[in-house]
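A further point concerns the way the authors explain their paired sequence and structure data. Since the whole study asks how a given chain folds, the encoding of that fold should be made plain. A single example would do more here than another paragraph of explanation. An entry of this sort, consisting of the sequence and the corresponding backbone structure tokens, reads as follows:

_____
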Amino acid sequence: MANHKATKKSARQDLIRRARNRGVRTQMRSTVKALRGAIESGDKDAIPSRMKDVERAIRKAASKGVVPARQANRKVSRLARAAHAALS
């Protein structure tokens, strides 16, 4: 347990940040899972809207520092290729 005033404050801030990051990461993973489900089932009507949601969620996570920017770019690129292949 923290003993100094500054470390106690830092511990409080860490709890808040962890909760916020967890929410952003969970939303990103859920949208990716929904897109992958649409791709696997071959639902061509849902894929474009799901891809839009996925890209928004991944970019948001990257802007908040939850995932690195290069990782976000890689995820979006790979999912876009998979979505495009499923639509073709």
